[in-house]
Amino acid sequence: MTDSIQPPAPAAFIGLGVMGAAMAANLAKAGYALAVNNRSRGKAAALEASGARWAATPAEAARGAAFVALCLPDTPDVEAVLFGPDGVARGVAPGTVVVDFSTIAAAAAAGFAARLAAETGAILLDSPVSGGPKGALEGTLTCMVGGDAEAFARAEPCFRAMGRTLTHLGPAGSGQVCKSANQLIVATTMLAVAEALALGAKAGLDGEKMRQALRGGSAASFVMENHATRMLAGQFAPGFRAELMRKDLRLSATAMRDHAVFAPATALTAQMLEALVASGRGGLDSASVGALVAELSGLKPGA
């Protein structure tokens, strides 16, 4: 199969959390005939109302689809959806492009790709994303893709419905390695920004003036632009939960170990994320690391 997967080809989306629901909506808006599946049907209501077809199982969603997308919390969830009793492998056809947008272990992603190909003839790509809920809503995600290059080329129109920056990085698992690097950079930068803001507060500086000064120079970053604002305001309603960032830093630490990389920043940041969740903030946004650093620095909330 070498034809590009263009609308109105049948497509399926499994996993309708904050990210998945928005991505699925953009796939439907692009003109794909969409089937959806989720552990709880209520999250599919808006998509069904706009014309998507509900599928009772992942197998049913995958049956007849040219493109199947997954967006799930962790490695065991992906394995269950792909290979469980009613999993994708029970319904997918040979040559179908299956894309896992979840963030999971790189070794597992490579293993799942080999297993799906052997059992069904379908092609699994790993494509973790960056850009958060805003990027998912606006269809501007960064997609880090591992797996068969020809399959990626065939599915590119589907990717274009959901993402803006698409990079094929190499064989299966490569996308997950890149995502581990991405999360390390984001989380470590958040920790540094949290410490910097705590320093400013203890030295008597105005936090917002300090942020404005820093964002105008070499310290400028997405984290300084967005997460620092949340830290200063103490607004930590979850966009990306701390418990998920902890999971991602565990994956980063595993990737570093697997590739024998000297990684002190990874070790420190991973431990800080463990502390953040242990402090009771696992359900808050990962930017709540700012509140933990402030607390440990002896600052009162709102200081």
From TrEMBL:
<dbReference type="InterPro" id="IPR002204">
    <property type="entry name" value="3-OH-isobutyrate_DH-rel_CS"/>
</dbReference>
<keyword id="KW-0472">Membrane</keyword>
<dbReference type="InterPro" id="IPR008927">
    <property type="entry name" value="6-PGluconate_DH-like_C_sf"/>
</dbReference>
<keyword id="KW-1133">Transmembrane helix</keyword>
<dbReference type="InterPro" id="IPR006115">
    <property type="entry name" value="6PGDH_NADP-bd"/>
</dbReference>
<keyword id="KW-0520">NAD</keyword>
<protein>
    <submittedName>
        <fullName>NAD(P)-dependent oxidoreductase</fullName>
    </submittedName>
</protein>
<dbReference type="Pfam" id="PF14833">
    <property type="entry name" value="NAD_binding_11"/>
</dbReference>
<keyword id="KW-0812">Transmembrane</keyword>
<keyword id="KW-0560">Oxidoreductase</keyword>
<feature type="transmembrane region" description="Helical">
    <location>
        <begin position="12"/>
        <end position="35"/>
    </location>
</feature>
<dbReference type="InterPro" id="IPR015815">
    <property type="entry name" value="HIBADH-related"/>
</dbReference>
<dbReference type="InterPro" id="IPR036291">
    <property type="entry name" value="NAD(P)-bd_dom_sf"/>
</dbReference>
<dbReference type="Pfam" id="PF03446">
    <property type="entry name" value="NAD_binding_2"/>
</dbReference>
<feature type="domain" description="3-hydroxyisobutyrate dehydrogenase-like NAD-binding">
    <location>
        <begin position="173"/>
        <end position="289"/>
    </location>
</feature>
<dbReference type="InterPro" id="IPR029154">
    <property type="entry name" value="HIBADH-like_NADP-bd"/>
</dbReference>
<dbReference type="InterPro" id="IPR013328">
    <property type="entry name" value="6PGD_dom2"/>
</dbReference>
<feature type="domain" description="6-phosphogluconate dehydrogenase NADP-binding">
    <location>
        <begin position="12"/>
        <end position="170"/>
    </location>
</feature>
<comment type="similarity">
    <text>Belongs to the HIBADH-related family.</text>
</comment>
